[in-house]
Design brief:
The protein has 453 residues and is an alpha/beta fold. The chain folds into 3 domains: 108 residues, 3-Layer(aba) Sandwich (Rossmann fold), CATH 3.40.50; 236 residues, tm_1862 like domain (pyruvate-formate lyase- activating enzyme, Alpha-Beta Horseshoe), CATH 3.80.30; 66 residues, OB fold (Dihydrolipoamide Acetyltransferase, E2P) (Beta Barrel), CATH 2.40.50.140. The protein is 30% helix and 22% strand. It has a 5-stranded parallel beta sheet, with helices on both faces. A 5-stranded mixed barrel has the order 16-17-18-20-19. The chain has a 3-stranded parallel beta sheet with strand order 6-9-12. The longest helix is centred in the C-terminal third of the chain and has 24 residues.
Length: 453
């Protein structure tokens, strides 16, 4: 009998990753990790323990670029073997000028190039028993929710934005590929799918809404059809980055019928026609108000979140006051506000008439004061109502949850105090569980509730 030991499998190479920027970049990082893990790499959470470190950068704003350069510098100082990818990689000289010794620089969504760079820096140790990954891939989000990217790039040419320069024009994924990925995620225990892209409601335009086969049935690469099919999987479906095109009206009844959450994330950016024209955005704010009113009539539970920019070049006090008045009329449920920041390469840089920084700050504060008042009043109206909430975390203080009105990390929470969980099986309560609660308290951003037993 041969008693010689089997050949030992080499210790796996370890890869660390720093992921910056938006959820779309997070999905890119997840795809890179999934590919590397499938090849036998281990994932390290420590600079010192990693054979190579990937930094996935954000290059949308100058402040984001500075944060990315700081992250690269930290990785170089702590480890020294660094591969840079992401949006800043579209301009590699901006990185190599500061850090000429990085191992490689690749652009956004260049997964194969990143993996090849890792192969060069730390060749994989093959082990057929450990290099497998779960069918849903690896994710950096909690197990009960996941981002579902349906396209890359953007066909819009907003004057303040360089995303088309960084990521190119719209490239939609075939509907069947999206559906198979979503199905794998739900089968793996994901309870909430957050649909993302640069322009979600433009999904499929580049494909001419072509059909592809999902379980032998044709599915169309069309916003409405995708929403309806995702709604059949049994998970919460949340739509992000939706432009208010007319065909979005057709999706509102799906929200009223429960296929997708009655939640729309729409980047309105401003309300003044003059500013919107300078931004190269749709400038028909009256029609937008009419559309919002029609949506709420068709789906009274609809929650709208949006983002706005104050201090855009040429914005006058009249423009800003018009925005505040529009906010009162539109009653946007959740709103984020950004002070305009020039982006290198953006056409808006040539507009002139810059708004002074102190005036930007003053307008930002006035905007947030107005929005917080709107939000507080809306949340006060929730007191006494019942809502389904998804559990995000459980600790010694109670449960941290979210309702359909709250996207993770950007909106508010619904808290359940520990004493109010007495009638709930706390040992059996886990992130991803869905409870019905009665709301009994509200602040400007958050709610508190008691489980309905």
């Amino acid at each position: 009998m041969n008693t010689e030991p089997k050949s030992a499998v080499a210790d796996p190479q370890k890869v660390g990753i720093v992921s910056l920027g938006c959820p779309k970049a997070l999905v890119d990082s997840e795809r890179i990790l999934t590919k590397l893990r499938s090849e036998g790499y281990a994932i390290s959470g420590d600079y010192a323990d990693a054979n190579v470190v990937i930094v996935n950068t954000c290059g949308f704003l100058d402040s984001a670029k500075a944060e990315s350069l700081d992250a690269i510098g930290e990785a170089m100082a702590e480890n020294g073997r660094v591969i840079v990818t992401g949006c800043m990689g579209a301009e590699p000289e901006s990185i190599t000028r500061e850090y000429p010794n990085v191992l490689a620089v690749t652009g956004p969504h260049q997964y194969e190039a990143v993996v090849e760079a890792v192969h060069d820096a730390a060749p994989p140790a093959h082990d057929p028993y450990t290099d497998l990954v779960p069918p849903e891939g690896l994710h950096l989000t909690p197990r009960h929710y996941a981002y579902l990217k349906i396209s890359e790039g953007c066909n819009n040419r907003c004057s303040f934005c360089i995303i088309p320069h960084l990521r190119g024009d719209l490239v939609s994924r075939p509907a069947a590929k999206v559906m198979y990925e979503a199905e794998r995620l739900v089968d793996a225990g994901v309870k909430e799918l957050l649909v993302i892209s640069q322009d979600t409601s433009a999904y499929g335009v580049d494909l001419k809404y072509a059909t592809s086969n999902w379980h032998g049935e044709p599915v169309s690469a069309r916003f409405y059809d995708l929403a309806k099919n995702l709604g059949k999987l049994g998970a919460w479906v949340r739509m992000h980055y939706v432009y208010p095109y007319p065909h979005v009206d057709k999706v509102i009844p799906l929200m009223a019928e429960g296929y997708v959450l009655p939640y729309l994330d729409i980047p309105f950016q401003h309300a003044s026609p003059t500013v919107l024209k300078a931004m190269k955005r749709p400038a028909h704010q009256e029609k937008t108000l009419d559309r919002i009113n029609a949506w709420r009539e068709a789906c009274p539970d609809l929650v709208i979140r949006s983002t706005f920019i104050v201090g855009f070049p040429g914005e006058t006090e009249d423009d800003f006051n018009l925005l505040l008045d529009w906010m009162e009329e539109a009653q946007i449920d959740r709103a984020g506000c950004f002070k305009y920041e020039p982006v290198e390469g953006a056409p808006a840089n040539a507009l002139g008439n810059a708004v002074p920084e102190e005036l930007k700050q003053e307008r930002y504060e006035r905007f947030m004061e107005r929005q917080q008042a709107i939000s507080a009043a809306k949340l006060q109206g929730r007191i006494g109502t019942e809502m389904d909430v998804i559990v995000d975390d459980i600790d010694e203080d109670g449960a941290v949850c979210r309702s359909y009105a709250d996207a993770p990390e950007i909106d508010g929470n619904v808290f359940i105090d520990i004493e109010d969980l007495d009638g709930v099986d706390q040992d059996g309560l886990s992130p991803g569980d869905i409870l019905t609660v009665e709301i009994d308290e509200a602040s400007e951003h958050d709610l508190w509730g008691v489980p309905c037993l």
